[in-house]
Specification:
Layout: H1 2-9, E1 14-17, H2 30-42, E2 46-51, H3 61-73, E3 80-83, H4 88-100, E4 104-108, E5 119-123, E6 129-134, E7 138-143, E8 151-155, E9 158-159, H5 161-172, E10 176-180, H6 187-197, E11 203-207, E12 210-211, H7 227-232, H8 237-245, H9 260-266, E13 277-278, H10 281-294, H11 297-308, H12 317-323, H13 327-333, H14 347-352, H15 358-373, H16 381-395, H17 397-409, H18 417-441
């Protein structure tokens, strides 16, 4: 067995991801594809996507499209694509060969229900032990006697899963089958079929199950949101990719935030764990927050534009970037940051939180204007704070900072006044402060 594995390892690595188009691709389902992709790219091999659409009743073109859209969004470039239904002619050829060689046979069946099959094709089980080396779990041995003569096709043009995947993996030159551990029980059947066909055995790597918060298996029906849903909620593809790569694998260090290119460089199957991986939505959100913070201001603004279809002023990017966990949160916060166009604050709003009368607030704003005017042409948020905060502390922070912030933003809720001054610049901030104390000077309330 070890010699067979060594022969496979000496070949060009070819992995495959074989989703069924019976629903949108979800965050748990894509994990096997991400591992297969990383392993292939790390070894300068090929990554195949094969749509397993032989379930004609449940397979839909819209789900197939969703699979490819999700993989493209995640940045997973594909070398070759296949559709299992296109291989029916080849499946029939191999089935007929097995029957002709008496390794399989057409079995007359008693239909279990009305309209049931009266005959199927069964594999003639040699009833022996099958042993294989799993790249994650080590040596695994099955006694195949209990499988009896199992069904490999409903008819010569309707192969079942076990037969079709063996034929397709063989024809496509797949060297490594990387999939969830729920497929371990399928492996002995598939090895028997490989041996009967004379197909080369790939290396198997069975990944740990992904568990939801209640420790049940994560699935389409149990907590696994689609990639499309995360896209619509404003998650970044690199965050989803990064987090999924950590569902059952670790780099051997405490570092967690990686780009796709970095993961390709360090990924190997040796660090895939055997114990179940726990899916944690809160942790995923943390990954997304970290990846947002890593974006440049320009890139973040472009991401917001792509997400919302709206132009984003680049001056707002660093402020939003530090406060949000998703792109949707960024768009929600923009309502507080809508102060770049001209503002006209009311006197009532200027005085509402000041705790002082109009003449006093007017005087404070005049003094603040001089402090702003004295700032250097190039200054930081901290520079603005160092200039104004001592004065505000002396005169009363509410009496100074509340009307200053309202004068600059025109809003009851907005970023702090030092940030606003930085964004608007000396000239822009000065104009708004002047307009505000002029308004207060005319006020006779």
């Amino acid at each position: 067995m070890a010699n067979e594995a060594n022969e496979v390892m000496n070949k060009k690595i070819i992995t495959r991801f074989a989703p069924s188009p019976t629903g949108n691709l979800n965050i748990g389902g894509v994990r096997a594809g991400i591992f297969a992709y990383l392993f292939a790219r790390h070894n300068e091999g090929e990554f195949i996507v094969r749509i397993e659409d032989t379930d004609k009743e449940r397979s839909k073109k819209e789900y197939e499209n969703n699979i490819f859209e999700a993989l493209a969004w995640l940045g997973m470039d594909i070398d070759t694509t296949y559709r299992q239904s296109d291989n029916v002619g080849r499946h029939e050829e191999l089935l007929r060969t097995l029957v002709a060689e008496d390794k399989a046979y057409v079995s007359k069946e008693e239909p279990k229900e009305g309209g049931g099959r009266s005959e199927v094709i069964r594999f003639r089980n040699p009833n022996k032990e099958v042993t294989f080396e799993d790249a994650v779990r080590g040596t695994i041995t099955f006694d195949t006697t209990e499988l009896k003569d199992f069904v490999i096709a409903k008819s010569f043009t309707e192969p079942v899963f076990h037969f079709a995947v063996v034929a397709d993996d063989w024809d496509e030159g797949v060297t490594h089958v990387i999939r969830g551990e729920d497929h371990i029980s399928n492996t002995p059947r598939q090895i028997l079929i490989q041996e009967a066909l004379g197909a080369e055995r790939p290396v198997y790597a069975h990944l740990p199950l992904i568990m939801s918060s209640d420790r049940s298996k994560l699935s389409k029906r149990k907590g696994a949101k689609s990639i499309t849903e995360y896209t619509e909620e404003g998650y970044l593809p690199e965050a989803i990719f990064n987090y999924d790569a950590f569902l059952g694998w670790h780099p051997g260090t405490d570092e967690e935030i990686f780009t796709r290119e970095e993961l390709i460089r360090i990924f190997d199957l040796e660090r895939v764990q055997k114990s179940p991986a726990m899916f944690d939505e809160t942790k995923l959100l943390w990954f997304n927050t970290q990846h947002i913070k890593k974006l440049s201001d320009v890139d973040f603004a472009l991401r917001l534009k792509d997400f919302s279809g709206k132009e984003i002023d680049l001056r707002l990017a660093p402020l939003l970037k530090e406060r949000v966990q998703t792109l949707q949160e960024g768009m929600d916060l923009l309502s507080e940051y809508d102060f770049l166009s001209d503002v006209s604050p009311s006197v009532e709003l200027l005085l509402k939180g000041a705790g002082s009368d109009a003449p006093t607030v007017h005087k404070h704003l005049e003094d603040v204007f001089r402090l702003v005017d004295a700032l250097p042409e190039t200054f930081s948020v901290e520079d603005a704070k160092k200039s104004i905060f001592p004065f505000a502390t002396e005169k009363g922070r509410g009496a100074v900072l509340w009307p200053l912030r309202v004068a600059l933003s025109g809003k009851e809720k907005s970023p702090d006044p030092f940030t606003l001054i930085f964004i608007l610049g000396k000239k822009g901030a000065g104009v708004r402060i002047t307009n505000a104390f002029s308004l207060l000077k005319k006020y006779n309330g």
